[in-house]
């Protein structure tokens, strides 16, 4: 018969951490490749309205965004609480839209310029007057492909 020994508890061997840096760098590279950086810092609060029938844009690189909403709290002392237009990272007026569209066209390849879509991201509580003014300026700039950004209604 065999004898069981219970001399004492044995220490567990240490876990090897030699492969830990490899794993960390692999995760780092994965997130660097998979993450897209936000192109524009929003200066206005936007809660887009809901819609029942929504289609996604296929080529987002051909989209220019115009944001309309109430300025964020840190900008309200300067710009007030009325809805404002934001083009790229700065506040703008309706008169600046034609120059914005022209610069967006110039930044694209020549064969893609006529496929440029303008997306309006407008707060749901913004009055329609400012949207109508924006649409008139877009017509003057010959930017006739227009998209309204919404969120899909949960059913």
TrEMBL record:
InterPro entries: ExbD. It comes from the Bacteria. One of its GO terms (cellular component) is plasma membrane. The keyword Repeat does not apply. GO terms for molecular function: transmembrane transporter activity. The keyword Transcription regulation does not apply. The chain crosses the membrane at residues 12-34. It comes from Ancylomarina salipaludis. This is Biopolymer transporter ExbD.
């Amino acid at each position: 018969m065999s004898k069981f020994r219970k001399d004492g508890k044995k220490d567990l061997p240490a876990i090897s951490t030699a492969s830990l840096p490899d794993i960390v760098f692999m995760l780092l590279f994965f997130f660097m490749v998979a993450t897209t950086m936000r192109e524009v810092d929003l200066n206005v609060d936007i809660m887009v309205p809901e819609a029942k029938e929504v289609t996604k844009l296929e080529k987002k690189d051909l989209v220019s965004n115009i944001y309309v909403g109430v300025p964020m709290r840190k900008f309200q002392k300067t710009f007030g609480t009325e809805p404002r237009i934001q083009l790229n990272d700065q506040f703008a007026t309706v008169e600046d839209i034609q120059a914005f569209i022209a610069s967006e066209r110039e930044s694209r390849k020549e064969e893609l310029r006529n496929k440029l879509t303008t997306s309006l991201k407008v707060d749901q509580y913004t009055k329609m007057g400012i949207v109508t003014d924006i649409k008139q300026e877009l017509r003057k700039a010959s930017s006739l492909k227009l998209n309204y950004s919404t969120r899909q209604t949960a059913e």
